[in-house]
Amino acid sequence: MRIILAADYQDMSRRAAGLIAAQVAQKPTSLLGLATGSSPLGIYRQLVAWHREEGLDFSRCRTVNLDEYVGLTPDSPQSYAYFMQQNLFDHVNLDPRNLHIPQGDCADPLEECRRYDRLLTQLGPIDLQLLGIGLNGHIGFNEPGESLNADTHCVALSQSTMDANARFFDPGQQMPTHAYTMGLGAIMTAKRVLLIASGAAKADILREMICGKVTTAVPASLLQLHRNVTVVADREALSRLPAELLE
Ligand code: GLP
Fold first, then answer.
1. What's residue 172's pLDDT?
2. What is the DSSP string of the chain?
3. pLDDT tens, position by position, 200-232
């Protein structure tokens, strides 16, 4: 695992965006696995800026997002579809036909999971998968548990995740209790994984992910078994890691 120490959130975002831009430049038809949450916002801002100012060209890229809340329509402000539109898709030259996210308001959840897996097989493997990390070690919405799922599935969100993500919902608004998530199979077969983390709250889980046991109790620890993982994280998030591991 390559671990890049960034000075702060902005530096983390710029370095991680640089790796994505390099991927797109090297392979214009790249299949990019995209993530939501607060961590990737700076990356998307940087990519939009490079698209506008330097002509970074996404016209032939294809994207697959990791996850979506069950029950939310794409135009719901809390949906990940809406998040992607607002923060990236509306501002770069990605072809709308090439953007894929599990459909939160689908009528048949099982069929939606199978559809997404068929799509991942047809388009894949993912060239570069961007990941954040949940406070409990989840990636996408692959939550800690007795076992992990290789395929796209519908998951009951853990209390830790509900608490962490409640900030995105209005007070009194019912937060979804379930989500669709890409499974570990598509993530582990991505050619390259880029995981980002920032802030002191992520320090303990980042150490567990990188230095702890590989365990389903910390889904991100599975990435220790992947051959091409780059972690870009800021000083605070890496504060509990031995200095010799850092670049
Ligand atoms: C959500 C998303 C994850 C994300 C995680 C961390 O649960 N499903 O993909 O990595 O939150 O979010 P944040 O970056 O806001 O800490």
1. 87
2. -EEEEESSHHHHHHHHHHHHHHHHHH-TT-EEEE--SSTTHHHHHHHHHHHHHH----TT-EEEESEEETT--TTSTTSHHHHHHHHTGGGS---GGGEE---TT-S-HHHHHHHHHHHHHHH-S-SEEEE---TTS-BTTB--SSS--SS-EEEEPPHHHHHHHGGGS-TTPPPPSEEEE--HHHHHTSS-EEEEE-SGGGHHHHHHHHHS--BTTBGGGGGGG-SSEEEEEETTTTTTS-GGG--
3. 999 999 999 999 999 999 999 999 999 999 999
* Probe residue for ligand 1, chosen from 67, 133, 155, 161 as the CB with the greatest number of ligand atoms within 8 Å: 133
- Residue 38 CA to ligand 1 center (angstroms) comes to 7
Ligand 1 atom closest to the CA of 132, numbered from 1: 10
| Predicted confidence (pLDDT) at residue 42 exceeds the cutoff of 90 | yes
Query: Considering the entire predicted model, what is its pTM?
Result: 0.97
- 36 alpha carbon – ligand 1 mean position (Å): 6
Q: What is the pLDDT of residue 186?
A: 97
- Asked if 16 and 196 count as a contact pair (C-beta separation under 8 A), the reply is yes
Give the range among 38-47, 93-102, 158-167, 202-211 with minimum mean pLDDT. Answer: 158-167
Round the average pLDDT of the chain to a whole number and report it.
97
Ligand 1 centroid to residue 243 C-alpha, Å: 26
**Residue to mutate, 141, 177, 231, ligand 1, most ligand atoms under 8 Å from C-beta:** 141
